[in-house]
């Protein structure tokens, strides 16, 4: 059975954020959410709007598809 999309998205956000040396505070502030809410996103427990997916992708320097597709190349920059 495939993982739910929000679990895939959360794991990708966490992995990319960590690989860039970012804490949860910076991305959370840019999204106008609390670090706790971002942690919930990363655990696949919270939902995001498409606008928020785009904003996170911008902040992480990738195209939005990278956050949604586990097979997408994370080195493909915006």
TrEMBL record:
Keyword Protein transport present in the record's keywords: the answer is no
Keywords attached to this Swiss-Prot or TrEMBL record, sorted alphabetically, are:
DNA-binding, Transcription, Transcription regulation
Cellular compartments per GO CC:
cytosol
Annotated Pfam families: HTH_31 (PF13560)
Q: Which InterPro entries match?
A: Cro/C1-type_HTH, Lambda_DNA-bd_dom_sf, TransReg_Diox_bact_type
Q: Name one GO molecular function term.
A: DNA-binding transcription factor activity
Q: Report domain HTH cro/C1-type positions.
A: 13-68
For this entry, the protein name equals: Helix-turn-helix domain-containing protein
């Amino acid at each position: 059975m495939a993982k739910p999309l929000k679990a895939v998205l959360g794991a990708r956000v966490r992995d990319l954020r960590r690989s860039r040396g970012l804490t949860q505070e910076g991305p959370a502030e840019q999204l106008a959410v609390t670090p706790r809410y971002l942690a919930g996103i990363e655990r696949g427990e919270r939902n995001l709007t498409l606008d928020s997916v785009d904003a996170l992708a911008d902040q992480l320097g990738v195209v939005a598809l990278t956050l949604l597709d586990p097979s997408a190349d994370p080195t493909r920059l915006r």
